[in-house]
Write a structure and sequence with these properties.
Layout (H helix, E strand, L loop, with lengths): L2 H55 L5 H16 L12 H26 L4 H195 L4 H132 L1
Length: about 450
């Protein structure tokens, strides 16, 4: 059984025992009071008859005393609350009082006869003595009965004292056992309180660090939220820029297409020029041939003019005019030969220019072809760029949408972290209160350890 239950049972038992003792003592006190009243009233009954007889013999009859003695004798036998007399239960005392009642009736009869015949004084005194002896025996019996009750009360008190001492001994033993258990528990509580206090301090420090970390994390998340919003804005700007670049790339593609068409037309024109240059080269060759023929004709004309001059010289005066003509013809032949030489020179230069032009035209044709290929490659690159920009545009839109969602999520995370931070602060406060309570518990345990 638990010590606390033992103490409770013991305390309840002591309370009931004390209540019983109190009730018993009260009953015995009332009984002692009744015993004293019985002894007192018995003595009155004994002495009252002697006084009544004395008054009668002195010529002073007292009927009130007779009535009072009747009432007392009846009360001593049957009990009377007004007179504080119990009903006689002891057989010896009851028998004695029955004899006293009988003797009283005899004495009252003799007293009535004495009032009629004063010569019966001797009989009256004799009956009075008999009555006194019986009443005296009843008084002694009442006194013995009261003494017996007092002895019983004394014995009962000794029994109660022994029981009280036994109960107190049991309580003392129980308290000692409880003190040992309590001492052990107090030591355990003190040690546990110290451990709890140390743990609470550690937890308080950890919660403080956690609060600081949550605050820093909240700040970082807020910065991340701002960065996310900025990233969303930049992604939106990138999407707009990508859209513009897409439009520009499409414009560039169209421009490249026009360039290809222009280069195609240029190549056709260069081909036409090349054909015309070839024709010019052929015509230049013809001019060179004609110039050669002119030079030959000039040489032959010069020879003819020379011959004509010779012949004119031979002809004398008649040939002077012809010599003049021959001289002029020779001059024209020389001029024609010089012109033919110049023409050949010019034709050579033109031929060289034509050759250079042919080479340049050929290079231009090759360049045009290369330009067309480059333009086509450029168009392909522009198409690839357009596709890439379109993908960038799509990705930028997705990034912007994701960044906006991330910003919303970050705001929710900030709210959650703020709630966690608030909870952590409340936890720190609670831990501080627990620490305070633990310190108080430790102090109380130490005080109990000293007290126990």
């Amino acid at each position: 059984m638990k010590i606390s239950n033992q103490l409770k049972i013991t305390i309840v038992g002591l309370a009931l025992f004390t209540l019983g003792v109190t009730i018993f003592e009260n009953i015995k006190t009332q009984q002692g009071s009744l015993d004293g009243s019985v002894v007192n009233k018995s003595g009155i009954v004994r002495g009252g008859a002697q006084r009544l007889v004395k008054l009668e013999t002195n010529g002073q009859p007292n009927d009130e005393l007779i009535l009072k003695l009747d009432q007392l004798i009846n009360a001593l036998i049957n009990g009377d609350k007004e007179l504080n007399l119990p009903k006689a239960t002891d057989k010896t005392y009851l028998a004695a009082m029955r004899e006293v009642e009988s003797a009283w009736q005899d004495l009252k009869g003799t007293l009535a006869q004495y009032r009629q015949n004063p010569d019966l004084k001797a009989k009256l005194l004799e009956d009075s003595e008999a009555y006194f002896a019986l009443a005296n025996d009843a008084v002694f019996i009442a006194e013995d009965l009261a003494a017996k009750h007092i002895l019983e009360v004394g014995l009962t008190q000794w029994v109660f004292l022994v029981l009280d001492l036994a109960a107190l001994g049991f309580v003392f033993w129980t308290v000692q056992q409880a003190a040992k258990v309590l001492q052990k528990s107090v030591v355990t509580v003190a040690d546990s309180s110290a451990d709890i206090a140390s743990t609470v301090k550690t937890q308080e420090r950890l919660f403080a660090d956690q609060t600081l970390s949550v605050t820093q994390t909240t700040s970082t998340i807020e910065q991340l939220g701002a960065s996310s919003l900025q990233a969303a804005q930049q992604a939106g700007s990138s999407a707009s820029g990508a859209k513009e670049a897409l439009d520009l790339s499409e414009t560039g593609t169209q421009a490249v297409k026009h360039t290809v068409q222009g280069i195609e037309e240029l190549r056709e024109k260069v081909s036409a020029i090349a054909d015309q240059i070839m024709q010019l080269s052929e015509q230049t060759d013809q001019i060179s041939t004609i110039s050669g023929l002119v030079a030959d004709v000039a040489d032959q004309t010069n020879m003819l003019a020379l011959n004509a001059a010779v012949e004119a010289a031979r002809a004398g005066e008649q040939g002077k005019g012809f010599a003049v003509v021959a001289g002029e013809i020779r001059k024209l032949a020389d001029q024609s030969r010089d012109s033919a030489g110049k023409i050949n020179t010019l034709v050579g230069a033109i031929q060289a220019s034509i050759n250079s032009t042919v080479m340049v035209t050929d290079e231009g044709n090759k360049t045009a072809n290369t330009g067309i290929k480059v333009a086509q490659d450029t168009a392909d690159v522009f198409n690839q760029i357009a596709a890439a920009i379109n993908e960038v545009y799509s990705n930028s839109q997705q990034i912007a949408q994701s960044a906006k969602q991330q910003a919303v999520g970050v705001q929710q995370a900030v709210s959650a972290m703020n709630a966690i931070n608030l909870g952590a602060k409340e936890t720190v406060t609670a831990v501080s209160q627990v620490q305070t309570s633990t310190e108080q518990l430790k102090t109380i345990a130490q005080e109990l350890q000293v007290a126990v």
